Amino acid sequence: MPTPALDYERFAADADSSAVQSVKGWTWPNERRFNTWFTRHAFEGSGDVVDLGCMSGSSTIALADGLSRNARAQGRKVHAYDQFIKSWDAIPGEPLEQVPTGSDFYDVFLANTAPWREWIVPHRERISDDTAWTGGEIELLVVDLMKSFPTTGTVVTCFYAALAAGRSHVVHQDFIFYGTPWIHLLHHRLRHRFDPVFEIPDSCSYVFRLADRPTADELEAAVDFSGITPDEIEAAFDYCQGLVTKNSAAPLKAAKAMAYYHAAQLYRHRKAAPLGFQGWMERARAALAAIDESLRPHRDYVRAAKEIAQATLQAMEEGIRRPMGRPTRRNDRGAPGG
Ligand SMILES: C[S@@+](CC[C@H](N)C(=O)[O-])C[C@H]1O[C@@H](n2cnc3c(N)ncnc32)[C@H](O)[C@@H]1O
């Protein structure tokens, strides 16, 4: 029997749980509401829930709270992954402000999630080439650690491979965010496999439902970013921009500029590149310049403009004689996102 269409707008209908909403984390109130609503009302119990990049546990708690109230959950768990090492410089007011950079914050996660412990399986590991998902079907995959091209490859080959057609959903917490353009390139490549189903209002998240299971070869090809072209970037961002109607257009427009910027890094030493380093960077600056003045005060525009300006300056200073550092290290190191 075909699965009935879900009314995702109902995510806001339940009364808020103050226990879920009060935990300090990097998720918006509506993202927590959506996670709880989904695991409570939409989750069928056909697979597990995987929370990638759980940090202090705000996403995990929301997911576990819904599961704990769903009779169909039947022993299903939230598998919460994080390296639990603070890899970013402290930001005033951030959820882990008291944790020094380089320190372990697993105890914060354990303390925050203690009331939901029986619903959670923590995985304390760095997602990398060695990562393997040894469980079965994943019914809900929440992604908040896809901060680089290589991590995207691992997430897709390990975790997307366990999604079930017609049932599984993926929530991308960094979709409406300037700093992770590989997500947009990826979901444009997989657009015939995933249905774009819901933009969570007042948040950075977008929800996809797997319609048609890709083969392992297709997943491998989807994360081979060695052949990106300007045409692909334009098409990917036209597609993704068309999905975002409830939140500001600024993050996606800034993400397009960042896609050009990251392509410049990827192709830096390749002779057969479609554009030279300066050509990609010119595209990055042109994409920024095309953003409407009214969107420029947005945090994501400001951050993209700063990173692209710094990279341009650095390249000028180096005369492009030697490889640049990786100016978006903050993202590669895993924090903060949308
Ligand atoms: C933006 S935070 C996630 C916020 C979290 N979902 C919440 O509810 O507040 C990103 C997290 O991803 C983790 N992370 C980033 N890259 C990772 C990797 N390759 N392996 C494991 N954890 C990673 C970081 O340690 C960080 O805690």
Molecular structure report:
With 338 residues, the protein is α/β, with parallel strands linked by helices. It folds into 2 domains: 18-222, Vaccinia Virus protein VP39 (Rossmann fold, 3-Layer(aba) Sandwich); 248-318. The protein has 12 helices and 7 strands. The chain has a 7-stranded mixed beta sheet, with helices on one face. A hairpin with a 6-residue loop joins strand 6 (194-199) and strand 7 (206-210). Helix 6 packs across helix 8, helix 9 runs antiparallel to helix 10 and helix 10 packs antiparallel against helix 11 (299-318). The radius of gyration is 20 Å and the shape is globular. The model is unreliable at 327-333 (pLDDT under 50). Bound molecules: S-adenosylmethionine. Residues 25-27, 53-56, 58-59, 81-83, 87, 126-127, 144-145, 147, 151, 334-337 line the site of S-adenosylmethionine (SAM).
